[in-house]
Amino acid sequence: MLFFSSSLPGMPRHSRRWAALAAVASMTVGGALAGPAAAASEGPVAVQAQAAQAPALSLQQATALALEHNPGLRAARQALAASDGAVLQSQARPNPELAYSQEDARRATRSVTLQWNQTVEVGGKRAARMRVAERGRDVAQAELAAAEAALRADVRAAFYGLLAAQQRVDLSGQTLEIARGAREAAAKRVAAGKSAPLEETKARVAESGAQLELDRARSALRVARSQMQALWGDAVRPFGEADGAVDALPEVPSLQALQQRMQEAPAVLRARQALEQSRAAADLERARRLPDPTVSLGVKRATEVGRNQLVIGVSVPLPVLDTNRGNQLQALRLADQAEDQLQATRIDLQAQLFEARELLQTSRSQASQLAGEVLPAARSAYELASRGFALGKFAYLDVLDAQRTWSEARAQYLDQLLATHRAAADIDRLLGGESAPTQRPASDRFAP
Question: Which of 98, 172, 243, 366 would you call most buried, defined as having the most Cβ atoms within 10 angstroms of its Cβ?
């Protein structure tokens, strides 16, 4: 805290007052402006420091966090828990009814009746109602399995997207270092009079382009980390770099294996359980066409007679005006709709599986070809062009072209690796399983 004296020598009193106020205002405004600036300058550094100190993140850890904290999966679990209440309620029987009636208001001639009425369900209504509730619980269970499979696939795609983003940052940094070295070499050649100043200008432009590419790669990495964090819901957990091999690619499943697993796919199970629930609902509406009788038992006190009388009765609704035909027809048509929906789900699932498998096979093949043929050739061409430029045998345009070709080949290789993992994640999403990645041969490993 700063204190300003009210008696500054050589200055009038009102001038001293304004000087003190000006000093306080300048310090307050300066602190307010310096605070956000300091936070903005230290924010990224602090975030990077936290990421560097945080432990590495594995695919198993990311999946466990998502399964525990993802709000969408929690909602599916709550839906399953709610279905237990529906099952419990379906077991309840109709409540009894206690009736009181009085005839005549005079004490000498009045009669009072106290009666117990109980509706009796016939035609298997209670059993049919319980089957509907149980099938509804099976539908909720299938929806939970589908949500879990989708979440696992999302986590896998996000994790390998994060690995690819990390690799892009590394590649962009290496490209920047190469461009900086080429610019320094061009500057030396220009200073020695061996090259025209235009080559140094081109090298500076190439270095600036590499710096922009590095900035874009870092931005994409921040987005990938945010997408991974979003799958954990409100579980804020700092994590370091993703720990995994982006070039550990899954095997391509056979068509026969996909056909066998398709019958247990989450979408098929959900459609099958929905069909069973619709059929149970149709049985319930069919059972409701029979009216439920009501049995009555009571006692009547007749004052004139001076004694109690037993009252027994049965009432049955007459299905004359309402025979429940409309509800039966609706339930039967909904069951037909569920059966057609099951068939449509199987056909759609088969088409999606074939498309995902083709994408997996194609991207995996292209990644292998890039790693085995294109990348080594592009790197060799760049190294030859660099040595030739240093010896004065090649122009700088040749070096730039070779460098661009090598950078594009590495970026394309990363794209194919990421496409492979996303296709495998789509298959896992559709089938509800998990493809095991296989280690690539040493000659095919990712090597920037």
Answer: 172
| C-alpha distances in Å from residue 356, one per residue of 48, 253, 416 | 37, 11, 14
- Gap between the Cα atoms of 128 and 327, Å rounded: 15
Residue 179, classified by CB atoms within 10 Å of its CB into exposed (0-12), middle (13-18) or buried (19+), is: buried
Grouped pLDDT means (10 residues each) for the chain, 448 residues: 38 40 36 36 42 80 92 94 94 94 84 93 93 95 94 94 93 87 79 77 85 93 93 83 88 89 91 95 93 94 84 92 92 95 95 94 92 90 82 75 86 92 93 62 43
| 437 phi and psi angles, rounded to 5 deg | -70, 145
Nearest to 146 by CA among 265, 64, 277, 275: 265
* φ, ψ at 103 (rounded to 5°): -110, 130
Q: How far is Cα 4 from Cα 17, in angstroms, rounded to an integer?
A: 10
> What is the phi/psi pair of residue 99, to 5°?
-115, 140
413 and 375 in contact (C-beta within 8 Å)? yes
- What's the rounded Cα separation, in Å, for the pair 278 and 332? 8
> Could you tell me if 241 and 57 are in contact, meaning their C-beta atoms sit under 8 angstroms apart?
yes
Q: Fill in the amino acid letter for 264.
A: E
Contacts of 223-230 with C-beta under 8 Å, sequence gap 24+, read 223/165, 224/158, 224/161, 224/162, 224/164, 224/165, 225/162, 225/165, 227/158, 227/161, 227/162, 228/57, 228/62, 228/155, 228/158, 228/159, 228/162
* Secondary structure E strands in 200-339: 294-302, 307-315
* Spacing of C-alpha 72 from chain mean position: 8
Chain Cα centroid distance, residue 354: 23
| CA max distance for the chain | 137
